[in-house]
Amino acid sequence: MPSLDGLVSAAGLVGSRLRTRTPSAFRWRRATLGALGLLLLAVVWELYKALGPEDGVVVGGLTVLPRTTDLAMPHVWDVLARLGQPVNSTQDTLVWQAVLGAAVFSLGVAGVGWLVGVVVGLALALLMQRFRTAESAVLPWVILSQTVPLIAIAPLVRRWGSQIEIGAFQWENWMSVAVIASYLAFFPVAVGALRGLGSPDAIHTDLFRSYAVGWWTTLWRLRLPASVPYLLPALRLAAANAVIGAVVAEVSIGLRGGIGRMIIEYAQSGSGDPAKTWAPILGAVLLGLLAAGVVALLGLLLGRFRRGEVSA
Amino acid sequence: MTEVPTTGPVPIGVPAVEVRGVDKTFSSKNGTVTALEGIDLAVAPGEFVSLIGPSGCGKSTLLRLIADLEAPSTGSVTVFGKTARQARIDQEYGIAFQQAGLLPWRTVRANIELPLELHGASRAERTARATELLELVGLSDFGGSYPDQLSGGMQQRVAIARALAERPRLLLMDEPFGALDEMTRERMQTELVRICGETGAAVVFVTHSIPEAVFLSNRVVVMSPRPGRIREVLAVDLGRAADRRDDLREDEHFFANVSAVRELLHGDQGARPAVRGVENR
Ligand SMILES: Nc1ncnc2c1ncn2[C@@H]1O[C@H](COP(=O)(O)OP(=O)(O)O)[C@@H](O)[C@H]1O
Ligand SMILES: [Mg+2]
After folding, report:
1. Could you say which ligand is closest to the alpha carbon of residue B55?
2. Which of A142, A288, A305, B53 supports an S-S bond with B223, CB 3.0-4.6 Å?
3. Per the CB < 8 Å rule, is B101 touching A204?
4. What ipTM did this prediction achieve?
5. Which domains does chain A have, with CATH numbers?
6. Is A211 on the interface with B (CB under 8 A)?
7. Is residue B3 part of a domain?
């Protein structure tokens, strides 16, 4: 069985504990750098488009850099301009409105998936922390679960869901998408929370034992607060996973209304309208940023649990 | 040298701590370690007893047995006439370790209130007690600070205040000043003497430092390693612990006691070579 430490670093959950709190000046600088990064990307795009060969860079029959035609790489300003125009000749809805609507829809589904994933991940971590045997019984399955490709589980989830019928409750396609999003989201939470719940020093667990309080009180007053520095990066990763899971699952399940389907639809109509193809992709980026933003907000609220204790 | 205390409080009635015929072995993959063997010790209410000895001689283990953080392999440990377990459940002792072990997400005040909060004290009660304790350890201005904003000595004082929060009749301390510099350490010792005088609690105090043990204690328990045994118990004849002041450190009686403990520590090898892990300052 792989070690928990290995898993944690594999899941990208390391080092958060040592990170100091960011003063607001530093945060602003980071935001500015982020904006500059976006600008730089646009500049690189346009430079390549201007200077790169028309047919792209081909090495041994393999295209390693894309064509620079307007069809493959529309101008950044064309894409932005397209956002402000109607979706098509028969509709008044502007592209940015349609994209935003789809992004909000996908964010909602991903959000439900994220919540379910967080709850399941936390529950698994608690189970494994409470019972040592559960850790050896459950952890391998948790890891194995992530090796099953999304494409394989999507139809399964859909089929199982369609068989669920409890009274007036009807399984709907968006629920299948949320389930798949949660399937990707629970993993980093389970691993990060398990590590975090086990993070209190022996001195702290001894102290709580000397107070003769039970497991639940120790959990609430010690283990959960101590796990926040581990949980936050896990929640961020879970949010990214949930967004990717939702967008991909929308396509595999065939759910309408979200960014995933929109990317496919616009791409199909795209040959005559290349700028439009890129609009929902911008929407997907926005989706990721929004999801990361929500978790960052959570991190701000939990700021005091991120103080590292300075050793005596 | 005496094995039975001749001065200092003689146990009357129920002792604060009574350890009888205790052995403690740890078993691990690479065999068993006998940490303690044949330990007998009684601590009277209000008495200050230090455990001293080279590292690995089982001082912490003995303290943890009294705290019911470990169970003895044989023998019995009672605290105020109860089993160690019952005493822990009844919160008969407060405990402090070498590291302050404050919760970094709680303010100094909230750290001191922690045991009170966990045991259901009212908010008003907690606030009053924390204010009192902050004053006792000289940190009234730092109640709203977080542990990472405090020096090591200040953190340790918070930990002591936290240990005193529920007015325990017994204080267990495992090298609480071990990580502090010499000057801070002496100041903390003086403060501890004063605090113990004010609270009247019995103390079992683990230390590496001979002068520290002598300055603080009514009796010094000298231990020897492998297996951990009590070699000797020395009564310190420096008057009531609560009356001790800083100038005592210059007193020739003090030096006489320090030499006595040092000789006991070095035991069979004669007085010359320093025992590893024990400070002779
Ligand atoms: N939990 C444990 N498991 C195994 N061995 C232990 C454990 N705790 C202490 N020991 C062993 O018991 C002996 C005494 O340790 P300790 O009480 O910490 O010594 P001291 O505090 O005097 O330095 C040491 O040999 C140590 O290795
Ligand atoms: Mg020790």
Report:
1. 1
2. B53
3. yes
4. 0.85
5. 21-72 (no CATH), 74-305 (1.10.3720.10)
6. yes
7. no
